[in-house]
Amino acid sequence: MTLQNIKALVLLSGGLDSMLAVKLLQLQNISVTGLCFHSNFYGCERARIAAAQLGVELIEDDVSQVMFDLVKNPPSGYGKNLNPCIDCHAMMIRRAGEIAREKGFDFVATGEVLGQRPFSQNKSALARVAKLAGIPVLRPLSAKLLDETEIEKKALVNRHRLLDIAGRERERQMELAEKYDIKDYPSPAGGCLLTDPGFSERGAKLLDHWPDCDTNDIELLKHGRVFWLNLPQDQKVLLLIGRHQNDNENLEKLARNGDIMIELKEMNGPTGLVRAKTDLKLDQEIIELSIPSEAKEIESEALGEILEKDWSRVAGTLTAYFYVKARAQKVKLQFKLIK
Q1: Which of 138, 285, 324, 337 has its CA 20 to 30 A from that of 46?
Q2: Residue 306 pLDDT grade (very low, low, confident, very high; cuts 50, 70, 90)
Q3: Which structural domains are found in the chain, ordered by start?
């Protein structure tokens, strides 16, 4: 086999490191295809842009369920937030190996850089990822600082033309981007929602309140203000209130049987979505409420220990409160049970 007919499958996030990994292999006349994954926490938008710029085919793979299972129970633990990076990377490489075998690729490569992330990209973590994945993986940007892989030993790639980049500084990568005319690449900020402290806090609370939650439940947390209402018998009711039109539309799309949608009947305001793990009693479809002028007047009732009053009045008051023109007014709200 010559380098001219070798095919590599490269995990392409769309960041500069993964783009450079593709470029380094292309310079060795290796045929490269990109692979990106999408779930509730990351997508393929950046990867599509990068693939077009690099002139490579892109395979998109949905790992939503397996990724959510890892978030619920990460064998290697979490990073700084709710991010199971080691297990996530291992899952991706393992899945890449399956796709490589199915489609006839010769090896799998990534854009990981030794020492760039202290938890998930130190030398022992990279070795653990490869072990968990069960396949050899080439990391072209740091290959000369790592043990020689079977990929290199089999001469599927020329190790001498790979790099020895390490650490969190990006000067070398930016120099290479200029050298290879890679102009459109994002900042180094992570593209995974699980590394965001705010989203991680919301996700952790969801897992605590509803251990049997699913991917649709956690998707809701991306689309609005999040409130947990406490009912008797330790029931937890989730209330989402849209912040803008996109939130309202997404909440409507994500609603499923048993959910209750709330809208201001005579005003254009936020949409509310109420979800519980037990059936909620809805006595009225239209409720007229007096909306307070200040949040402190409803916070103690809505977010207190237990709601003894009708949950619908509290959820409706909160929903209307976030429309400024409804404050200190008497408004009508429409409640709709999704069937």
Answers
A1: 138
A2: very low
A3: 3-194 (3.40.50.620), 223-337 (no CATH)
